[in-house]
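Practice set, problem 2.
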Amino acid sequence: MNRYAWWKYLIIAAALFVGFVYTLPNFFGEAPAVQLSSGKATVKLDAGAVSTVESALKAAGITADFVEFDNGSVKARFADTDTQLKARDVIRRAFNPDPADEHYIVALNLLSRSPHWLRALNAHPMYLGLDLRGGVHFLMQVDMKAALTQKVESLSSDIRTQLRDKDIRHGGIRREGDTIQIRFRDEATRTQAQRLVGNLADVDWVPGTDAGDLTLVGSLKPASMRTIQEQALKQNITTLHNRINELGVAEPVIQQQGLDRVVVQLPGVQDTARAKDIIGRTATLEVRMVDDSAEAQAALAGGSVPFGTERFMERGGVPIIVKRQVVLAGENLTDAQPGFDENHEAAVHLTLDSRGARIFKDVTRENINKRMAILLFEKGKGEVVTAPVIRGEIGGGRVQISGRMSTEEAADTALLLRAGSLAAPMEIIEERTIGPSLGAEN
């Protein structure tokens, strides 16, 4: 006679069955594959790339087990390594016709041999780390002092602008370490300035004297310092994720260690130099005016570009003529967030520092109904992220980019502008190349 009710045995059997099904992928092993991913921040892959890959492979007489779009990249699995190598060359020629200007990364990879019905159930094999698969390990140190210095420099510029706008005279503003010192000649002016700069929530102000001059000394609040450091670390981790996607690593490990360190583990990558090159790469942002003159239009039709201009490509491969003069640089951009405009259409909201706000106000006032291009430079080559039309003077350091943009495109553009470069410098303090010794023994 059973001690327990029959339905309890049924629950145990069902749990064992489900567990057995989801362990099956571990028994099928791995097969050679080719992974296609974006090689530039302004280039994005979508599900439509699957048909392009399939057509290229079919034209070359290569048969793939399957081709699928997964997590922003296209993956094709093959029966053997010879077919894998041939497929890599075919896909590379199809997506990178100019070897000197590669828009996509075509990398060799390994995928599970699990059948389609298991993958449809989201049954995946266990993730293998460096010990079992081999790869490279980096420990990176974030220069938090540089992040704080950059914030203090930005605050100094903002304060200088505020005092000038309110016509409050001072004897100079200078940064000393992580503090800001403002000099005054009389008590009345110092009191007036203290009321103005006291609105800065991130800074504590203390009156004092120095060499006979009255001073205001501002220092970052401890809570603000922690916030700045945390944001710098998060932005660096986001930027590292964007860059490491170029390596074609299926499951990289990028995680915070302590208050100022980041661990980067790249399973399956043995080329340390290539990994260091991508991790250490910088992206720069520039804002320039678009040249819509008759000479520029002729250049778009095939003529030579006018003096003082350059030809770039917009998203979608449309050429555009942009003036060489840089209106604003990425250092003037403090934040970029997706949102909506007054017509409830997707938009990107930018925040500029005081210098950038002043320049942007003057430029937009003088160039109404003209186009302004926002360019992102990577590896020495620039591409136009967006080129909106200026509808009116824009002041206050708040800028909105909108027009023919989906919600997803707005989020992507904001990410590019916000995380195109590191928020604080990082250096590699430890690097190791690890072989799959434990995996080979087992």
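Problem 2, part (b): a different protein.
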Amino acid sequence: MDTSLSWIKAYVPDLDCTAQEYTDAMTLSGTKVEGFTEFDKNLDKIIVGKINKIEKHPDADKLVICQVQINEEGEEVQIVTGAANVKEGDKVPVVLDGGHVASSHKDGENENGFKIKKGKLRGVESFGMMCSIEELGSSRDMYPEAPEYGIYIFNKDVKPGDDAVEALGLRDAVVEFEITSNRVDCFSVVGIAREVAATFHKEFKPPVVTSTGNDEDVNDYIKVRVEDEDLCPRYTARVVKNIKLAPSPEWMQRRLAAMGIRPINNIVDITNYVMEEYGQPMHAYDYDEITGHTLTARLAKAGENLHTLDDSSRLAKGTELVIA
């Protein structure tokens, strides 16, 4: 079971400890930790910068010279870059002279990261580097708004001088727990948070759930049939109307990304979020694509072709439980 430390702190808000202190205490209290990963490892002196001016490099067609504001007082540094996606007014992650990034566009990943030093690019001084999401140790899978090639550009309200690592949600750690089969109550973020509150003697503040809906009868829209009650004693469905597909909120994307789940859209992300938060698997179906508007929990038929979400086709053996 992987859990994001920042997500745990949402339900145990008074928790104040390092990732190492957290994992040591949880292991000693009986919730064994396999290991943890700190997202901000090797990231240092990385702030939000605003590109105030861009000029062509006099001796290199593919390079530009940027005057980048690095604080609210208006202080600027000069940075030379080959990125083609930046423009004046953009706010970008900037690693300053002496800072560290997790990855280099030339040398790839390094266990200790890469130190950035001021230097000259084709004869023009450069006092730092603007960063892609890969150079900050992440990927476009987890930050789908990041460009395929080029510098990450903030599309949120940030100011020059802000902590870029914090703004990206990378001041976090993911902890891998070994949960035994008799502790199914810990197969969720809420379950782990409850254990954390007890371990650290802090108040546990679970998410507040409010009921929603209207006076319509769900049975007028969808039917659920369970054919194998031994394998599936209960299956429920709900109809949600008037939805609009869109990106999910950034805070939800960041929490899912921390758990290793790629953000897709608001509907898919909501089902994955609830699954991680409560340990309750969910799936969203397109109502218009459900034949006969009936969901059936049954055994697969031997030789039946199953087209799965990874765009693969698999032949069933006849022993698998499926939702048809």
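Answer key, part (b): The first strand starts at residue 2 and ends at 4. Helices lie at 5-11, 19-28, 164-167, 189-200, 250-258, 266-278.
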